[in-house]
Design brief:
The chain is of the alpha+beta class and 389 residues long. Among the domains are: 105 residues, Gcn5-related N-acetyltransferase (GNAT) (Aminopeptidase), CATH 3.40.630.30; 152 residues, Gcn5-related N-acetyltransferase (GNAT) (Aminopeptidase), CATH 3.40.630.30. The chain is built from ten helices and 16 strands. The strands form three sheets. A seven-stranded mixed sheet has the order 1-2-3-4-5-7-6, with helices on both faces. The longest helix is centred in the last third of the chain and has 17 residues. The chain is globular and about 70 Å long.
Length: 389
Amino acid sequence: MLNPQNGSLKPMKVQLATEEDVFQISQLYFDVYQGTYPDPLMKDFYLIREFIKSEAGFWFITKNEKKEVVASVLAAYDKENLIAKAFGAVVRNECRGHGVMEELLSFGINFLREKTIGVDVIYSTTRTVNEAAQTLTEKLGFKKLGIFPNAHRTNDYETHCLTAIVYPSALAKRHTNYKIHHELASLYNVVQNEVGLDSLESIVPEKPSKVLLPPGELEVVKSPKFVTYRYNHLKAEKKLEFEFFPFHQPNLMIISPDQSIELFCHLSAVDGYCVIVGGKMPPNQDFTELFLSTNKLLRDAGARYIEVIVRSDRPKILESILRAKFIPCGFFPSFQQIGDKRYDFAVFSRSFEIFDFQNVKLKGMNQVYLEEYFKAWKRMSLNPKLLKI
């Protein structure tokens, strides 16, 4: 593979994966991660083949002169919101340091721009066990938008960074006629400088004018096929209070006995990573109490980390999420498209474990985001007056 005369790699071919590449792709992830990669997609031949055949995503690979797969990266694609997510980047150890992933990811970005109906935003979560991935995304134009402390576990805890290319076409449609929640103002200022956004005035939300309803008894339903069916049914009927968490399908739900509350989640059985995808609930629901109860149920179900995103122009809901001890960890401008407008989202996380950063190597603004996270954590998690218990 290496040219013995100069130590460089011999010419390689960058391409879309085909069904014939399924076994080699799976072998690549196993060899590099020794079976510890948390996403089951990279282990299951059937799932790999279905993704390759799907119109909702693209699998890009690099082959050497022996037609062996030596690098891989995936892109999920949402044509409704004109967004894509790049993930699962991996390169064989002997090919690292030669620009293999840069060429592959560049190929993928150009493909999304030229071979689809359009893309306004391309985002990725970047590992922090070394600086190479952070340097690469920065070189390709990804801006840093936040950090996810100890979001995943392989052999060790993994902190990931949120990065994105937000194209001018996305910013031109951005909804900015709102005031930012005062607890998000400091984080927003960091993202504002990174991306080049307009300033937003901060606001302290008004207290609820109506009596809020506690959630009452709740229980967990683990039935992935039913949960997915129910979620898609309620989404089609527009009965979900919030339902935007792209590229995640729920496999678990939190439900009240009368089904007035149905909260949909995706929980990874591999490493306890969990996201709250959306939910249906009655009017005047006490979101704080609902999410506090949900936290306990998800923790008992095996979640060790929970993530949720909320539109940043909804200060009262944001206030409820904050009071449920979710910590702001990222800010995503122009994320969702509705009509001819794109809306900002705030990203929150909640961890049930002691933070472990012994393998973290943060570059540039990512260090600033971690500092912002812990400033917020100290204000909220160590403030006994924040919650009315």
